[in-house]
Write a structure and sequence with these properties.
By secondary structure, the chain is mainly beta. It is about 5% helix and about 50% strand. The protein has one domain: YVTN repeat-like/Quinoprotein amine dehydrogenase (Methylamine Dehydrogenase, Chain H, 7 Propeller). Pfam families: Lactonase.
Length: about 400
Amino acid sequence: MTSKGVAAGVAAVLSLAAAQAFAQGAGTAAGTGMSATATGAADNGVFDLLVGTYTGSGKSEGIYVYRFDASTGAITRLSSAQTVNPSYLVVSRDRQHVYAVNELPGDNGPASQRGGISAFRFDPPSGQLTFVNRVSSDGNDPAYLALSPDGRYLLTANYSVASNPGGSFAVFPLEGDRVDPSVLTVHHDGSGPVKGRQDNSHVHSTVFSPDGRYLFAQDLGADKIYSYRYTPDGSRGLFGPTESRYTLVKPGSGPRHLIFDQAAKHAYLTTEMNASVSVYDYDDGKLTLRQTLSMAAPGFKGKVGGSAIHLSPDGRFLYATNRGDANEILTYAVDPSDGHLKLLDRRSSLGKSPREFAIDPTGRWLIVGNQDSDSVYFFRRNPDTGELASDPKRLEIGSPVDFKFVSPS
């Protein structure tokens, strides 16, 4: 949640992408946010960088597109598209479409106001976005988007539902350039021990398994990872609960983001309220907890807020952000034998509320947005050691949140 949203007790959250193509949606490649069709992008190191923002402060107008050169770190603004609170983005596999949440009501809107999902045509060579249409998210505060592995459906995680307190996820058919109204909305019941934060269900992200057969819905309010079978042939309904139905997470922790490694043997989870990273073994729709590490430094007494999590393109390092009073990026080494993590470094994000970040497809840069400081920092990254340089480049953007890389050619 935004720090203001926590104080106001209003749900306004989001998360960032998974490491696998199917885990994050059919439009992204493993761990990068890069278009899966951008096979030649790493050769010349030039990408389109899409940035989603919050627009309520008046400092931002929506989605921004930049041309980014990973060899030099040079960045040039190409275009922008006006839309309300596009705090999470996803790009189609063919790079021709961009979908954004319209996170409403947000901190200041009426509780009855529904969120939205907006569709845009995208021209990668020019970086131009063209609005197509918008539909209701069938809930409040949509926080995440995922494309089904076959590209037929777009899913969103609605953090809250005003008329029926508790979160949901909704499923939207994709037809040509358009996103159609939802054909399925799944509500969760439940709560957790933290009053004011876990009084109801709060679905924070929806992530497909690497093989595309399962969907995992991270529920911050209920401290559960719900699991569903995806059966697009309709033989068991479009989405149906698995036999186990869910994986319990430590009470009061608030699960937020889930990603998979490239081998589909391990999954990694951030929890928001106690700021931890957990390692799971993964097998055919089942998650088994193997390790949990606190993000907070020993003796740290301030507020925490676990947020985004991503693997490096080669899978050797994992990064996560901790907000609250910490405002840090943590670097972990991944043990190739069992997927376990070892903390290597913690570095200031140089601002407030590092909600999301991304690693460019070449692995040479980590880009983090400080939502409450209107700044984006480009940290040069050592692909061999995972280390982030201490002299990042700065870009000023109003309330930056989400980042996606796309090959322009």
